[in-house]
Write a structure and sequence with these properties.
Elements (H helix, E strand, L loop, with lengths): L2 H78 L6 H28 L2 H5 L2 H14 L19
Helix pairs in contact: 1-2
């Protein structure tokens, strides 16, 4: 093989090598892009599933647990109204009823923080405004600019 032939073979080999490396890099880039798209889709589905779970727990707390607490509180009130109930027992039942109302209030607050219904019904802007109002009641100075966030969010 002459020097010129060797040079042509070397150039062709270099071109083939560059093309193969380019093809390999492009394949890696495409695979990485597909992986990123899949990760985004998975993350979106995961967030939707988490929010659905939070909404379910919030509904269960509000619709079931708080109703049971209210039922027990009502039963305590009925027992305390019975005739010939000692004063101390009536006072103790009143304390228990008061504590149950506090438990119900706490459960209601947790359910609301887990999934505020205003988010589903009125949108992000009003939900943020409600959160800001709650924070202001706690003594915090908060300012929020929503800029068109009043649309109701879809769950997907």
């Amino acid at each position: 093989m002459t020097g010129a032939e060797f040079m042509y073979v070397a150039i062709v080999g270099a071109i083939v090598g560059v093309v193969l490396i380019g093809a390999f890099v492009m394949t890696l880039l495409f695979a990485q892009r597909r992986l990123m798209v899949a990760q985004r889709a998975f993350t979106k589905h995961l967030l939707v599933a988490q929010e659905e779970e939070r909404a379910w727990v919030a509904r269960e707390l509000h619709d079931d647990v708080i109703q049971q607490v209210a039922s027990v509180s009502h039963a305590l009130m009925e027992v305390s109204e019975e005739e010939e109930m000692p004063e101390a027992a009536v006072a103790r039942l009143a304390q228990l009823e008061h504590r149950l109302k506090g438990v119900a209030s706490g459960i209601r607050a947790v359910a609301h923080r887990m999934h505020p219904s205003v988010l589903d019904h009125l949108g992000l802007g009003p939900a943020l405004d409600g959160l800001v109002d709650e924070m202001r009641k706690e003594g915090l100075r908060v300012t929020v600019t929503t800029g068109g966030a009043g649309t109701v969010l879809s769950s997907t």
